[in-house]
Design goal:
about 200 residues, Pectate Lyase C-like, 2 domains, six-stranded parallel β-sheet, five-stranded parallel β-sheet
Length: about 200
């Protein structure tokens, strides 16, 4: 994000199979993970990855609760059917990742980098995503419910037919974002009307 380089790593773990493992309580910092299988792995607290890089890692159908992925970099990773509950991804960057049917409930994903990401089948709910980079992201038909997008970078983001109810849309510029068919609530409609320069008044 903003041209910041990925954190340097001091250790490499490659090719290991953690499929179905319980990762609760593990701590990793500045580790490079290459071609790992974390499919159906789980964690219920205490899992921490700080300034790690994941390259070609599979997270298929994994379920993590209360895990932290802070300032991490994900390259060519796969998240098919993965679920993250009350997790942190603060400052993490995602590049060429597959998010098919990813579910994120709660947690803090502020400052996350998802430029150009294909998020069309993703479900975000009750997530903090302040100042996230969603430039050019395809979020059409996705669920983005009660998400804090204040200060987010949303240039050319496609929200066509997305369900945006309850989310903070103060950073949305209707002239640069596609909102055709998007579902919004009354308060959001007023916010968007104001962004269009309309003077909304009661009857």
């Amino acid at each position: 994000m903003h041209g910041r380089l990925a954190p340097a790593t001091t250790q490499t773990i490659a090719g290991e199979d953690w499929d179905g493992d319980d990762l609760s309580g593990q701590t990793h910092d500045h580790v490079l993970f290459i071609d790992m299988d974390l499919s159906e792995s789980t964690s219920s607290g205490g899992l921490l990855f700080d300034e790690c890089t994941f390259r070609g890692v599979q997270f298929h159908r994994s379920v993590h609760t209360g895990a932290s992925f802070t300032n991490c970099t994900f390259i060519d990773c796969r998240f098919f059917g993965a679920t993250f509950v009350e997790c942190k991804a603060l400052g993490s960057m995602f590049d060429r990742c597959d998010f098919n049917r990813l579910t994120v409930r709660g947690g803090d994903w502020s400052f996350v980098g998802l430029p150009g990401a294909d998020l069309r089948t993703v479900s975000f709910s009750d997530v903090r995503m302040r100042e996230a980079d969603l430039t050019g992201a395809r979020v059409s038909s996705a669920e983005v419910l009660r998400v804090d997008l204040s200060g987010a970078m949303l240039g050319k983001t496609d929200f066509t037919k997305s369900d945006l109810r309850g989310s903070d849309l103060s950073a949305v510029d209707p002239f640069s974002v596609s909102l055709t068919g998007a579902i919004v609530d009354w308060n959001q409609a007023i916010t968007l009307a104001g962004s269009l320069g309309l003077d909304v008044r009661p009857e």
